[in-house]
Design a protein that fits this description.
about 400 residues, alpha/beta, Rossmann fold, 2 domains, four-stranded parallel beta sheet, Ferrochelatase_C
């Protein structure tokens, strides 16, 4: 073997993952779990600095940022996401303790304190060298997977710990039972709430289920997932959401004589009008329902793991108001949050890597998975920014 051939294929990975295999079926003795999230402001003075972090490198003036800031201002400048991650961290720690697993949980954010760099410094101070990362996003796209991997690399560079720390990541968990089960429970409960509130309503003809997720630029969506999979328009991002929605509807439909129609819709667009983003917008979709005789709508935040700002503002405020304006009864299904099955599922995903679980034994509710432990080359390209150094995957 030559010196070139002996080089690891994956940057700052453990020995098992450095080979670049799709699934790592070798046990790895990790020292700690790195819980990675988006982050959010925790006061009015934090809002603009936080948004500058989110949009770093794009030169957006404060006046434009203030137009977005009103969502946070309406909640006292406090995003719910940090408190949700405190609760998730505590829930993960409790689940680990209940199973007798000695793995500490470190928490770091991409865009606000506590930052990923702070979590890595804490890991180094504690003597931890092998971390397994849980990114709080279930699907494949630039913003929901690759950008996390780029931020791991950036945090290593900022701290100068590239020679001391190794960071692997769990697989994208869009079709893991722990993530999907809370949505099945939520849609089932929503149907019960609707039939109680509107006696005699026909679920099959007078109700619509809207599965909603964050809209992203169509160019990013088309390039989501491994290029060799050939997902086409919408890429892996859209294909994964549609596959999970089908699983949810099939599970809820067991034992029912009729079921509502459903549609995948999008929300929280933030790009310029000239840039194509995934459509239809959830509010446009809701406005079209009365003309078809729909009386009630179930809003399922399928793309979100917790009730952060896009859920609290864009769904609980705007979409709910749009439904009311169109005389529709609406129910918004809960996100997984700290649902027991979700928390347990995340630990199961960590243990897949700790134990080197064979691929055939890994739970996956769609034919698309189980997804990759190590992201494939060229996965989830951002055509505007190009490929930046990233962990947890083959270059570029």
């Amino acid at each position: 073997m030559t010196a070139v051939e002996s080089q690891p294929l994956v940057r700052n990975a453990t020995a098992a993952a450095s080979t670049g295999a799709e699934h790592i079926e070798v046990p790895v003795a990790y020292d700690a779990i790195l819980l990675a999230s988006f982050g959010g402001p925790e006061g009015q003075d934090d809002v603009i600095p936080f948004l500058k972090n989110v949009t770093r490198g794009r030169g957006i003036p404060d006046e434009r940022l203030e137009e977005v800031a009103h969502h946070y201002r309406a909640f006292g400048g406090v995003s719910p996401i940090n408190e949700q991650n405190r609760q998730l961290k505590a829930a993960l720690e409790a689940e680990l303790a209940s199973r007798g697993i000695d793995l500490p949980v470190l928490w770091g954010n991409r865009n606000w304190a506590p930052y990923l760099s702070e979590a890595l410094l804490a890991a180094d101070a504690a003597g931890y060298t092998k971390l397994i990362a849980i990114g709080t996003s279930a699907y494949s796209s630039y913003s929901s997977c690759r950008q996390y991997r780029e931020d791991y690399a950036r945090a290593l560079d900022e701290t100068g710990l590239g020679e001391r720390l190794q960071i692997d990541k769990i697989r994208q968990f869009f079709d893991h039972p722990g993530f999907v089960s809370p949505f099945i429970d939520g849609v089932t409960s929503a149907f019960e709430q609707i039939t109680e509130a509107l006696p005699g309503i026909d679920l099959g003809t007078e109700v619509e289920v809207l599965f909603t997720t964050h809209s992203i630029p169509t160019a990013d969506a088309d390039r989501s997932g491994p290029p060799e999979r050939g997902f086409g328009a919408g890429g892996a991002y859209e294909a994964q959401h549609r596959a999970v929605a089908e699983v949810v509807m099939a599970a809820v439909g067991v034992g029912r004589s009729s079921m509502p129609d459903w549609k995948l819709v999008f929300q929280s667009r933030s790009g310029p009008p000239t840039q194509p983003w995934l459509e239809p917008d959830i509010n446009d979709a809701i406005a079209e329902l009365p003309a078809r005789g729909i009386r009630a709508v179930v809003i399922v935040p399928l793309g979100f793991v917790s009730d952060h700002m896009e859920v609290k503002w864009d769904l609980d405020n705007e979409a709910t108001q749009t439904a009311a304006d169109n005389d529709l009864y609406s129910v918004r299904v809960p996100t997984p949050g700290i649902h027991a099955q979700y928390v347990s599922g995340l630990i199961d995903l960590v243990l897949e890597r700790v134990n080197g679980t064979p691929t055939a034994e890994r739970p996956s509710l769609t034919e698309l998975g189980p997804w990759y432990d190590v992201c494939r080359s060229g996965c989830c390209e951002n055509v505007r920014l190009g490929f930046k150094p990233a962990l947890g995957g083959l270059a570029p």
